[in-house]
Amino acid sequence: MAEKNKPRYNAVMLIDDNEIDNLINHKMIEASNITNKIFTHTGAKSAIEFLKNIEKLDGAGESILPDLIFLDIDMPLMDGFQFLDEFDKLSGMTKGKCKIVMLTSSINPQDVNRSKNTNTLKSTSTSRSPRKTWRS
């Protein structure tokens, strides 16, 4: 019986410069009971550093790595696509475990096409507008 209530993911990471979107997404993830751990970053640089630090933990790192990363495309300093470029430099263990869902409020066709050319699960629009999913 205990298996039935076990969360689907060990950990989930939110990367979005909009703190309100992070809060909403955090609450939705909590309510869905898909994980017990939610890591939240308001910048892609801090998220990459977090993942690099986990990799340094040797054997313990894999149990901490997020299974699912929700990544905003449009952020200052380092955008979602730049995050993906840095993510590609991480270890095979990290790249193999972490699945990425790209989030955006952009309706720019270039962003849609660019997101389709990445190794992500899907892209979905964010913000307080209706959500639209782009399959990759």
UniProtKB/TrEMBL annotation:
Transcription regulation is among the record's keywords: no
Record GO biological process: phosphorelay signal transduction system
SUPFAM superfamilies recorded = CheY-like (SSF52172)
Stretches of Low complexity bias are at 115-128
Q: Which UniProt keywords apply?
A: Phosphoprotein
Q: Which residues carry this modification: 4-aspartylphosphate?
A: 72
Every copy of the Response regulatory domain together lies at 11-136
Region Disordered, as annotated, extends over 111-136
Q: What is this protein called?
A: Chemotaxis-specific methylesterase
Q: Which organism is it from?
A: Cesiribacter andamanensis AMV16
Taxonomic placement:
Bacteria, Pseudomonadati, Bacteroidota, Cytophagia, Cytophagales
